[in-house]
Amino acid sequence: MVEDLGLEGDFRITFTHGLSNDTLAYYKDHRIDYNDAFLSTAKEPDMLNAVFHECFHAYQEVVSNVYTDLLEQGVRVDKMPDFERVSEYIDAYGTYASDSATGFASYEANRLEYYARAFAESQVAKLASVI
Ligand SMILES: [Zn+2]
After folding, report:
1. What is the pLDDT of residue 92?
2. How much distance in Å is there from the Cα of 112 to the middle of ligand 1?
3. Tell me, what's the pLDDT at 34?
4. 65 alpha carbon to ligand 1 midpoint, in Å?
5. HSE-CB of 38 using CA atoms within 13 angstroms
6. CA of 60 to the centre of ligand 1 (A)
7. Which of 88, 99, 100, 103 is deepest in the core (most CB within 10 A)?
8. Are β-strands 25-28 and 31-35 bridged in parallel, bridged antiparallel, or unpaired?
9. For the chain, what are the domain ranges?
10. Whose CA is closest to 34, among 49, 13, 5, 52?
11. 56 CA to middle of ligand 1, Å?
């Protein structure tokens, strides 16, 4: 079945009218905001994809913060296999704004987006295989 990202805590989900048509949803500061125009017209697999995608961005933020906190405490998590991708996430935060401003191809190639898209697609495929 779908993967449990282990996210718990104070996460909010909101729905906004009037977001750009290019934005289906976004994650920021423990909040996933969905474009209500997208949700009112999207097919179920696309909705699920957006949910999984934004949840993975929440996961990326949480695990990046844990990684940074541990490094600051002197714990060498950068050598641990479970944190292998996290340094990629942190690097990608650094280029996210410029990648997004450069165009859709570079936005899509940003490693935060790449991994969120891969996660969402794999989870939707898992659900589709059991329906
Ligand atoms: Zn994204």
Report:
1. 96
2. 7
3. 92
4. 18
5. 21
6. 11
7. 99
8. antiparallel
9. 43-130
10. 13
11. 8
